[in-house]
Amino acid sequence: MQKRHSFDSSQVIYRAQELLDAASNRYRITVQVSNRAKRHRYEEFDSIDDPAMKPAIRAIIEMSDELTQPEIISDN
């Protein structure tokens, strides 16, 4: 049985809007999300951590987390 994540579509839309609001260039942030999703897609072939979450949704969630919680990507 597959485990479903608690992210609903309104939460993903809200996080995507946060990314777009914070970005100075909407095209650039869209390309960054796309590139990260593509990287996740290729990583899925090696390990099947969460097949229920699409790579684009995972990229949006990760990038919005990095935006709102910069301590998770700090070098400390």
From TrEMBL:
Organism of this sequence: Aphanothece sacrum FPU1
EC code(s) of this entry: 2.7.7.6
Swiss-Prot/TrEMBL catalytic activity: RNA(n) + a ribonucleoside 5'-triphosphate = RNA(n+1) + diphosphate
InterPro entries, A to Z: DNA-dir_RNA_pol_omega, Pol_omega/Rpo6/RPB6, RPB6/omega-like_sf
Top enzyme class: transferase
One Gene Ontology molecular-function label: DNA-directed RNA polymerase activity
Biological processes, Gene Ontology terms: DNA-templated transcription
Listed GO CC annotations: DNA-directed RNA polymerase complex
This protein's name: DNA-directed RNA polymerase subunit omega
Pfam short name (any one): RNA_pol_Rpb6
Keyword terms, alphabetized: DNA-directed RNA polymerase, Nucleotidyltransferase, Transcription, Transferase
